């Protein structure tokens, strides 16, 4: 379903998925700042930004496009974990650090659609943390099953 929504985003379906996601979120002292994972493709994955928009609408969270891609990366669907980590290394740049008091006590959450190895999230967090943003986690709509092996045809 998520792969289909990447091609043809439907606001109502995304809103429903975000409502379910929001049920499991903690109550924050200060509303989180959401940072979507950017795509390097011209017609990239719209879901991280759309999930952010829904969380802003439904929960009043803040959103900022702090990340940009430093370089293109390989498609990761065929890569194993070590190769995914290497592929994403240095792939993100943070556009700016926090203004005085902006990051104090405000959790920063990276937003993506699917979590597989964590390589994208780890490298996005590193870029943000290097500029002084306190990343506390990542929000995703789905996670691939852990520990599975892929057989080759």
TrEMBL record:
Extract the signal peptide range.
Answer: none
Q: InterPro entries, alphabetically?
A: ComF/GntX_DNA_util-trans, PRTase-like, PRTase_dom
Q: Which family, according to the similarity comment?
A: Belongs to the ComF/GntX family.
Give the protein's recorded name: ComF family protein
